[in-house]
Design goal:
The complex is a heterodimer of chains A (about 550) and B (about 550). Chain A is an alpha+beta fold and about 550 residues long. Helix content of chain A is about 20%, strand content about 35%. In chain A, strands 1, 2, 4, 7, 10 and 11 form a six-stranded mixed β-sheet that branches. Classes of the chains: A alpha+beta (about 550), B mainly alpha (about 550).
């Protein structure tokens, strides 16, 4: 081995000649090209120092995104549509009315992105590397003391033993080392046209199984629902273009189809790539939590109404009454009022129809029919709209997490209030129910039923988070109490596995307010209101300040 | 005859009688009184000896004493000429007018072209059927509507022409201003000619009328092909315009058109149900909230509250009674369902035992269909029956006779007595026992009566039943006239500002909104009725509908 390597080294040295240094290192470098500065990007060249043995030169395109937010369409006055539903052959009439009036959901956009040229080149460097330069053996003699043994195996002295030990050592030589480099090439724009595909009349009409009157286009959104469609021109840097789409908070299962010059195209400079995105709706994504259909209230003329109505309170320690103490009424518009009322009415009509159908089948097989009727009675009673709302009160701190303060639940029948909304010209207002939630009552946010005092600390920021849940609406996830036979999770182990509130209550809308400085409704003269208990919080606010005022989320 | 003609004739009558009167008088006595009959002469001519006389004179009776008659005669002749001239001009105008309107008639019948020869109006003769016409071809025929329009146009123009002819007589009296006759019979009286005197316009009128009659007779001979709806009988040949009875009995509408009209009538009636939603959002909701408030104040663990605040309790009951009074009256007037209240309903009767002194729980939404209304009626009956404190049943379900204070509601469940009177007798009983009764009983009874009224409206009891209920509750003894005048002022009376309130949270406001909504429903029903009336006319001539009508007489 040693001799062979030595011979090779000598031969190489003889052939190439000494390079550069005074050291006699082997030169394993090969220069295949040195001056090819051509760039894939028109109008420039690559730096000369970076083109030796150039390889893997390509253009990569970056990806960028265009966002589009989709809301329920309100172009058709609800009353006109509802009147059509009540007519003879109303389902078809209402279906056609909606499809003629609602515009197609389509939009175009331009996505800017960049082309970037990447390549690899080699430099001839001095390296110590077994792979590139080979190894050589280095040997040395090693002496060590060894115990000697007699015939019987007893130790009887020691002696010195000398051995030769060899080690493979990497050589140092000149070798080609690869580097990767990238350089911006150009700014490009990709155009696209996207649309939600409206199924043809033969594909989706009132006779199609699974049809709902509120979904005449199959892709329609119900009040409170919203989708964010993000169209990507490409994934991250690649040499072929693959547009993609992500539909955020999707309420349906979709199948996107991409066509156009951009799809699968090579990444190039100075292009006018375009793609078309057709979003086909497969069906409703059943099992999502109810959407939050609340919005801040407006009167029938369109003027904003303050969502919080403040009321008075009594300071239990100082025994003083103050007229502006805490928010006592929470006012909101439930924009799902009319639609959910309609859905509930139709479910009851269908329930009657199903019961009739089962009854008609009685002559065929009595036993089966009886079971069918019983099953129907239990299941398909239809439902009445009975929206449930959770109001949570949290305390906000700067540079710290929000802390829970109190919460209450309220059902529709206890909160809905009479309103002149039906006079409004704006469709959304016209079809909304008006809620006045009494948060100041016993059993509300400040006083629990069993007498606990939850009044607020003065001069601090609090936030109301209001979520809603629509029991009985099959589109949305139901709790195990409302629908006990929906899945295994409501079965025998439901005390562990049942659906958590976050799975069926909607995301909240948030309303911030600040407790007034001059009112303290808390009790606990010697503890809760003491200087000692409040010191840490006061110190925190002194050091970090308090949170900024926020506008309520819609 | 139009009114202007009438007026003209009246004037003519007066003119003639006045002139007749003047003539007799002048003959009898040549007195100054005769001259007073002159109404507006150009000049008042005093009797004079001789010499001057006015240059121009108008019609009138003049007494003169002059030896020189010739001048007067000249003036009279001049006046005569003038009047004749006016007559001629007037006559020419009349004839021109008549010719014009007659030309219009001719154009309607024969068509019109303008100066360049382009057709401006298609005449009836061109619409009509000519020989060689192919009855089986669909095109080129008139629809029923087109034909009726042509008929209408012809009738209208003919009437206009006849009117023009008739009003010729009015023209003369409009030309003259004086209305006395002056004649120059003897030396004392000068008679001046009035316009068209002695000229009879009758021949002129007769001439034009005859022309018109001839024209109309021609149109009566025209034949028209009217498109009908039936495939087997595609064309009906109608002759002339006068007799259209048979034509109208023919089927001008296809069965699809007919069916669509029937659907339109039904759909219009269906639209009447929608304004009720506004009532759900206002009147029903505000009453519900009031009931919830009363339960809150008087209903929970709080019979003692009633004792402390009896007058408050009584006032609350009064307000609730008023609210239900408004509902009953709305049903009386409009005859439409308002939507019934819903309480939480459990099939197991035992569940109600736990309601001892606790409150009614309302459910969301209002009942609009009879099955739900019946379910609610059941629930309310059960609830009334099993509320302990009245029945003497304690919390554990045991009967404690000492606790039994009042009415045995189990009688409610017997079917022999009219259920409505049962409820009313409970109500009377309850009102006499305000201290022992709980708010739950009051509200349940009222809601029960309300639900029953809702059910009455969708059954054959109908308005009869509502009226009976209304009389029992509101006209026997108790004085509701004040409430009636406040909430339901008679139509035509001006409402006071407090009556115009539309705040839905108040009873008066909610009531006003409800009335407006129900008026919208009434309007929808009116539209439906109009379509149905038109349909009945179309049905009358058709044989199977006649059979149906006959059978109605048999039932």
């Amino acid at each position: 081995m040693k001799s062979k390597q030595a011979a090779l080294a000598v031969w190489t040295l003889a052939w190439v000649g000494q390079i550069g240094s005074a050291h006699a290192y082997v030169n394993n470098c090969t220069t295949r090209s040195e001056n090819d500065v051509t760039s894939l990007c028109a109008g420039r060249t690559l730096p000369k120092s970076q083109v030796r043995n150039k390889k893997s030169q390509q253009l990569e395109c970056t990806g960028n995104v265009d966002s589009y937010i989709r809301h329920p369409q309100t172009d058709l006055p609800f009353d006109k549509w509802r009147a059509a539903l009540g007519h003879k052959d109303g389902q078809m009439e209402a279906y056609r009315l909606k499809r003629e009036t609602l515009p197609l959901i389509q939009w175009t956009g331009q996505i800017p992105y960049q082309t970037i040229e990447t390549w690899q080149y080699e430099t001839c460097d001095l390296v110590t590397d077994s792979f590139k330069c080979g190894t050589h053996q280095e040997c040395h003699n090693e002496t060590r003391t060894v115990t000697t043994y007699d015939d019987k195996g007893n130790a009887n002295g020691s002696k010195q033993v000398t051995e030769e030990v060899c080690v493979s050592v990497p050589n140092t030589c000149w070798a080609d080392i690869t580097h990767s480099e990238s350089l911006f090439c150009s700014n490009e724009t990709m155009t696209f046209a996207a649309n939600y595909v409206r199924p043809s009349e033969s594909e989706w009409n009132p006779s199609t199984p699974g049809y709902y009157d509120v979904l005449p286009n199959k892709y329609d959104l119900l009040p409170g629902e919203m989708e964010v469609v993000q169209v990507y021109s490409n994934g991250s840097g690649s040499t072929t273009i693959h547009p993609s789409v992500v539909i955020g908070d999707a309420w349906n299962k979709y199948k996107p189809v991409f066509t156009g010059s951009a799809v699968g195209a090579a990444c190039r400079q100075n292009t006018n790539y375009h793609f078309d995105l057709a979003i086909h709706t497969v069906g409703r994504d059943v099992g999502k939590a109810s959407p939050n259909a609340f919005r801040l209230p407006k009167d029938y003329k369109g003027n904003a109404v303050d969502p919080l109505e403040w009321g008075g309170g009594v300071d239990p320690v100082k025994d003083q009454a103050v007229s502006i103490a805490v928010p006592r009424l929470l006012k909101l518009d439930d924009t799902s009022g009319a639609t959910m009322d309609l859905l509930s009415e139709q479910s009851r009509k269908n329930a009657d129809r199903e019961a009739l159908k089962a009854q008609e089948g009685m002559n065929i097989d009595k036993e089966d029919a009886k079971n069918a009727i019983a099953a129907n009675e239990a299941k398909n009673q239809g439902f009445w709209k009975n929206t449930k709302v959770k109001v949570e009160l949290i305390r906000q701190r700067k540079a710290w997490w929000d802390s829970f303060w109190s919460e209450m639940y309220v059902t529709e029948v206890d909160a809905k209030a009479p309103t002149l909304n039906f006079l409004a010209e704006d469709e959304t207002t016209k079809q909304s129910d008006f809620w006045e939630i009494d948060i100041g009552k016993v059993g509300g946010l400040y006083e629990t039923v069993d007498g606990k005092n939850n009044y607020l600390k003065p001069n601090r920021h609090y936030k109301l988070k209001i979520s809603m849940y629509q029991p009985g609406v099959d589109f949305y996830q139901q709790s195990c109490d409302d629908k006990p036979d929906q899945s295994w999770r409501c079965g025998w182990a439901s005390w562990i596995t049942k659906y958590r509130e976050s799975e069926y209550y909607s995301k909240p809308i948030e309303i911030q307010f600040k407790s007034p400085e001059n009112f303290d409704g808390r009790n606990g003269k010697y503890w809760r209101r003491s200087w000692v208990k409040n010191a840490p919080d006061n110190l925190w606010v002194f050091l970090f300040g308090d949170v900024e005022d926020e506008k309520p989320t819609q | 005859m139009n009114s202007s003609v009438k007026a003209v004739i009246a004037i003519m009558a007066i003119t003639h009688s006045a002139s007749a009167l003047a003539q007799t008088q002048t003959g009898a006595a040549k007195k100054a009184t005769a001259t007073t009959k002159v109404t507006t002469p150009v000049l008042a001519i005093p009797p004079m000896a001789y010499g001057s006389f006015p240059v121009a004179i108008g019609a009138g009776t003049y007494n003169y004493q002059s030896l020189d008659k010739t001048r007067i005669i000249d003036a009279l002749i001049a006046q005569n000429e003038k009047v004749r001239g006016e007559d001629m001009t007037a006559l020419a105008e009349m004839v021109q007018q008549l010719n014009l309107s007659f030309t219009g008639m001719l154009q309607v019948v024969y068509g019109a072209t303008d100066a360049t020869g382009k057709k401006t109006l298609i005449g009836l003769t061109e619409h009509s059927v000519k020989s060689g016409y192919n009855p089986t071809k669909k095109d080129g025929k008139l629809t029923l509507t087109d034909f009726m329009q042509l008929k209408f146009e012809l009738d209208r123009r003919a009437a206009m022409v006849r009117n023009n002819i008739a009003t010729i007589d009015a023209i003369p009296s409009m030309l003259t201003t004086a209305n006395t006759d002056v004649g120059m019979k003897d030396a004392d009286v000068a008679k001046l000619r009035k316009n068209f005197e002695g000229v009879s316009l009758a021949p002129l009128k007769a001439h034009y009328n005859k022309q018109l009659d001839a024209l109309l007779a021609e149109t009566e001979k025209l034949k028209f092909g009217i498109k009908l709806a039936e495939e087997k009988l595609p064309v009906y040949f109608q002759t002339g315009f006068a007799n259209t009875t048979e034509l109208l009995s023919k089927r001008a509408y296809s069965k699809e058109d007919f069916a669509k009209m029937k659907d339109d009538a039904t759909n219009a009636a269906a639209d009447a149900l929608l304004p009720i939603r506004e009532i759900h959002k206002t009147l029903n909701l505000s009453i519900l909230k009031q009931m919830q408030t009363e339960i809150d104040v008087f209903g929970k663990k709080g019979s003692y509250r009633i004792e402390l605040n009896t007058s408050g309790f009584e006032n609350s009951i009064k307000l609730i009674e008023e609210m239900f009074y408004v509902r009953s009256t709305l049903r009386m007037i409009y005859g439409m369902n308002l939507g019934g209240f819903r309480v939480v309903y459990q099939k197991k009767a035992l569940h109600w035992d736990k309601l001892n002194n606790s409150s009614i729980v309302f459910d969301n939404g209002f009942a609009t269909d009879p099955s739900e209304l019946t379910r609610q009626q059941d629930a309310m009956f059960l609830a009334l029956n099993t509320m302990n404190d009245f029945n003497g049943i304690d919390d554990k379900g045991k009967v404690d006779p000492s606790k039994k204070t009042g009415y045995d509601f189990s009688k409610l469940l017997s079917k022999d007595v009219n259920t409505f009177s049962k409820v009313m007798s409970i109500w009377t009983f309850l009102k006499g026992k305000t201290r022992e009764v709980s708010i739950n009983h009051v509200l349940l009874t009222l809601m029960l009566a309300d639900t029953q009224e809702e059910l009455m409206l969708v059954s054959s009891a109908g308005h009869e039943g509502i009226r009976e209920s209304y009389n029992r509750r509101y006209r026997n003894g108790a004085d509701w006239t004040k409430a009636r005048d406040f909430y339901f002022p008679k139509p035509g009376t001006l409402k006071t500002p407090e009556q115009k309130n539309v705040d839905p949270k108040t009873l008066v406001g909610a009531n006003n909104i409800a009335k407006a909504a129900l008026d919208k429903s009434m309007d929808a029903y009116s539209i439906s009725a109009e379509i149905e009336a038109a349909l009945e006319l179309l049905e009358a001539a058709n044989p199977y509908f006649q059979i149906k009508a006959g059978r109605y007489d048999e039932i």
